[in-house]
Predict the 3D structure of the following.
Amino acid sequence: MAGRSRELVERVRAILRRYEAEPREKQPAVLRAGGLELDPGRHRVSRGEEEIELTLIEFRLLHALMSAPSHVQTREALIARLYDDEPDVIDRVIDVHVGKLRRKLENDPSLPRLIRTVRGVGYRFAPEDADPDKLSRILRNLLENACRFTPREGRIIISGRHSGDRVRLEVANTGATIPTADLPHIFERFYRVERARSRETGGAGVGKDGVALGGTDPVAYFEVGKPAQGSVDYNHEWRGALWHFANTEHRGMFAKNPEACAPQCGGWCARAAARGDAAKSVPEAWKIVDGKLYLNFNQSIQRRWERNIEEYIAAADEHWPDIF
């Protein structure tokens, strides 16, 4: 009996020696960038201690992008990698999955900082490095907002901290502060307005003088059924721009619900936005679709846009956050 036990032990040891001698499969490298950690072996994505749940396609898409940081990958190449050259897979599928990834990964999906769109080509994973000048501008913007909305008796507190490669800035006060509805746009109002004012194409959008839509009354499209020039006597400030109106009633309607009255794509050409570009618009080229106002470059472009409105609107909704 003892002899059989020794024989069994020797066989187990021999099996273990063969296992240890066999070359083991190399585990795929863990990828780290932009505050994210992607572990292919464990099929896990995390940010700090937080685990982020992704579908299989989303995980594979993120892995493909993070494997070649800053490298532009075409939609066609991504489709081939994700779907193994399956037929009838359109490139818009990638746009949909990128949109879902941004909603899970980005602090503000409307202003993506990790997955960037390269117009007319595809996408690249290019997280921004810390930029002292940019941080300085953000702090200045926070202070200007806080000073603007805080009464004299109020107190403003600004604090900051960093964890790994992430920086968190906070502003708080003891007085009346920024309206709740404006909080999601605290950075957008500066970022987009500054970019819009720097463009040579004026007209619609926010012009160089800071007047939205070149002074055209946006409410008139809904109430009168045609464009109307606003007056400086009836104005309202919203998202860092001055909006003009034809009368007090229109100004009141806008002030009550600006999101419903303001044109889509910031007042820029809707067809150009669908292609990932920015172009000025004219007041005469317009249309209200599902209760939303859209403007275009001219009436000829407007007619082309109207041939396939639904597709153009869907594409513009996808591209617009990356244009400004």
Observations:
- The mean pLDDT is 77.
